[in-house]
Amino acid sequence: MIFPLNRRALLVLAPGGMMTLGAAGVQARPEAIPPKAPGYAELISDPAQPVLGNPKGDVTIVEFFDYQCPFCRKSYPEMQAFVKKDGNLRWMMKDWPMFGPVSDRATMIALGAVKLGRYAEVNAAIMALPGRHLSVEQVDAAAKSAGVEAGDALDSFQKDYNSWTELVGKNIGEAYELGLMGTPGFVVGQDLFNGATPIADLSKAVARLRRG
């Protein structure tokens, strides 16, 4: 599956179009959102984007990720615990599939699971798989362990194909405009974290946003 992306998104994926793939694992420091990039309000307002945590939370953490990104996968359990402990956070994981067909498949299965009412479970199951380079069989088995047959999820994805591919293309375009160099990338308020980010730093950004 190749997502139909806009030209800006294709620049990100084209050879030489991005500095690194997933090499943003270097510990990040907060930066400001670039002036010409989408603002925080725009990033968190897309109704098509699945949301984890508390859907009515007062602060949204935006994470650009890939299901095969080792840094995303390593931080996932800590993020889950942080979001759960706080209780008032929306966690918006924006798909940025960059590691090939298996990443594309994982994205399609997870998004297809939205209409099946199992997005959070499928998302967690795939992120819990061991190793960086996943196989189709691993992804499909993870979905099944979360109560969704891969074929059913892919059929669901195809039924809303245009909407889902538009969303993924938009996410990739946003990542490019924000200047992200790979996954993960986080946005909290006006704070942009370009790489792996300690929970303590995200917590501070959340506190700053709440203070106004």
Automatic annotation (TrEMBL):
**UniProtKB keywords:** Disulfide bond, Oxidoreductase, Redox-active center, Signal
Query: Sorted alphabetically, which InterPro entries does this protein's record hold?
Result: Thioredoxin-like_fold, Thioredoxin-like_sf, Thioredoxin_domain
**Which part of the chain is the Thioredoxin domain?**
22-211
Q: Which Pfam family is one of this chain's hits?
A: Thioredoxin_4
Q: Which residues form a coiled coil?
A: none
**A GO molecular function held by the record:** oxidoreductase activity
Q: Say if the entry is tagged with keyword Chaperone.
A: no
Q: What does this protein do?
A: May be required for disulfide bond formation in some proteins.
Family statement? Belongs to the thioredoxin family. DsbA subfamily.
> This chain belongs to which protein, by name?
Thioredoxin domain-containing protein
State the organism named in the record.
Paenirhodobacter enshiensis
The organism's lineage is: Bacteria, Pseudomonadati, Pseudomonadota, Alphaproteobacteria, Rhodobacterales
